[in-house]
Amino acid sequence: MATHELGPVGAAPPLSPDQPLPVRAQRALTFGLLLSAFRCTLQYVVLPFVLPWIGVTGALPPWVTLPIGALALAAIVRNVRYLWRLRHARRWSYLALAVVVGGALLVFAAVDLHTLFHL
Question: Are 47 and 60 in contact (CB under 8 A)?
Answer without folding.
Answer: yes
